[in-house]
Model the fold of this input.
Amino acid sequence: MSCGSRWYCVVTLPHQEHRAARELGNQGYATFLPLHLARHGMHHTAVVPLFPGYAFTAFDPAVAAWGAIRSTRGVLALIRHAPDRPTPLPLGVIENLIERTSSRGIVDDPGDIAPHSTPHAAQPPEWQNITSLGSSARVRLLCRLFGPDAAQRIVSEDETAHAA
Done:
């Protein structure tokens, strides 16, 4: 990441989180797709995105041609509050998740000794136990970082722009 880079949230097409992260990485963007071990019954677990429908990318919007992100395979939109600039995540939130991610890409991986992460000032307290929440509760916590209706508003704006 360059010195002016910040983390931004990408809305992916349904079940396209891995593809979006891979394609953004192929274009030279730093990406982060936090994963989670979802338990299904007593003996079955699956590795799934921590935030279904979302991935993260880092760039400096003053330098990067970030408008190309929207046309990346697997990507639906980039969360933004204004059409001319994406909205960065608060400093420390993604960095904290990265610190808590194992070499397998899993946040708070029970199969690995979790690194000791330092809470960041911008991190909501609920994020310390985020892996114990259900997927919809995790997505609601993520969306709260952008305001109460940000994700719905941004997706609606992007769909309107695609229809025009």
